[in-house]
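Sample 1 of the test manifest.
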Amino acid sequence: DGGITQSPKYLFRKEGQNVTLSCEQNLNHDAMYWYRQDPGQGLRLIYYSQIVNDFQKGDIAEGYSVSREKKESFPLTVTSAQKNPTAFYLCASTRPNAYTEAFFGQGTRLTVV
Amino acid sequence: AQSVAQPEDQVNVAEGNPLTVKCTYSVSGNPYLFWYVQYPNRGLQFLLKYITGDNLVKGSYGFEAEFNKSQTSFHLKKPSALVSDSALYFCAVRDGNAGNMLTFGGGTRLMVKP
């Protein structure tokens, strides 16, 4: 089945640690996105990538980094520079055409302990 | 720059009554509009979209949405609400003139009471 997979579902980070969230899709989509969601809140764009080896900062990129070495994969690293990383992180992918909908992963809940 | 507004943080409706969740948008080019639903601790699920043509779009789970170009709105509707419709709803827009970027509204929590 085609889809988008995020792992792990739950992740705990100690203060000062970097952690990497995985996002893989087998939908052959060119564009991929990372969003952050805080409790009861909307989605805030962290980074997006329209093609392999290219990515752009979103609205809240500080303290985060990404790579796009393969079409299928768009991992997000939460660095120690992100002062308040506890949140729900969502990955999405789309075809490049504007009239196509996005597909979302099931999310990763990151907690700082 | 494109934007989406969902003016209501929460909508309360009784089961069996009609529901409306509001959305307005701003784009420079042709708007492609989407509605998504999110259940607790889950990703977003696609409900329906407007591309072109008929202004009334039908989607999953009995939901529909009405596109109004003059009012730049795309309100989500359902004739008879179910308790199981209680969730967080997001409106989104893609603009063909803006690199097809996907922009979301802030979300509206729908509470359907028995």
